[in-house]
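User: My collaborator sent over this chain with a note saying "see what the structure looks like." That's all I know about it. Can you take a look?
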Amino acid sequence: MRKRICSLTVALTIATPLSATAADSPWQNQPVEARGALTAVTSGPEGTWAFGEGPDGRSFALRGAEDWRPVPIPDVGRVHHAQSGWAVGTRGALRWADGWRRVSVAQRAGVTTTLHAVEGDPLDPGRAWAVGADTVPGTQWRRGVVQRWDGSAWRAVPVPEHLLDASSDLTGVEPRGGDEVFAYGVDHDRSGDHVVVLRYSGGTWAKVPVSRRAGHDEHVVAHSSEAARLVGWTAPVGAPASARRPLVLRLDAETHEVVRERVPATAAELTGATSEYGTPLAVGHTRDGRPFAIRLSGDPANGRWIADPVPAVRGRLLAVAGIVVPNIWAVGVTSDNRPLVLRDSP
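Assistant: Without extra context I'll predict from the sequence alone. Here is the result:
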């Protein structure tokens, strides 16, 4: 089947982030006794886990639900993403096997590999895919990389040089089963940063064309298979971070089109997405350092994103996971470098 992709012009609606008391917000603040930032969260057969980076730069984990308890784990630095019994970080990967075990990633001599996202094969629970970036020797650049867990080790799945810029990052991965997988990320070139989509099928990589929004950077920070969305931020090329606005791209399951969706024009950026009983929601933080959350209202293909009331705390949400209330969790860091945990309990 021929795959095609297109982009639509972003339409923005003015909105203001909504702060709320515990009584009128669907998000409830959960107390956590620890130091450092929570950067990834997962909820599955292995339980509910939040992963973080402590003040010393080492990994830490909290096992939660009704309360959050610290559990020792091997150090892999900052954990970027966790899903399907896997967690990937700055210095390696963790795999769940009656406890979290450190697993080496595929790495070439003289190159440092950092994985940003991981997801299991939907047709084979013993296999998984991960994406990230390699350092480029002799430069300060990093180039996107793809790896596959074959049941015993992570192995590189090389992407041809002409399909990715020398300066690029891959931040989302979507296995479709078998040997088909989509990888999402950002190419950095002289005209700005733009979304890149790659498809692997039949042992061959292809770049799926995605139109660019002229004069704007677009960063895809995270992907959610449950929500069929890519999220991140957009801003005029060269603009300061204060100019960033939320970016949501919808992935059509049948046509594989990528569509830019209407989002609140809040000074904010998105860092994670999931789906609550089939309703997509996304989290992030505002320019002034407050939690930010939006959810889709109406039809999944033609709905409108609206801002959620959030607790009036200072901090940034960095990840979200779970698909069934009340086991949907958003995690991040408070302004005084303590873990931030919000539970979706509408």
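A starting point for your reply to your collaborator: The two ends are 41 Å apart (CA to CA).
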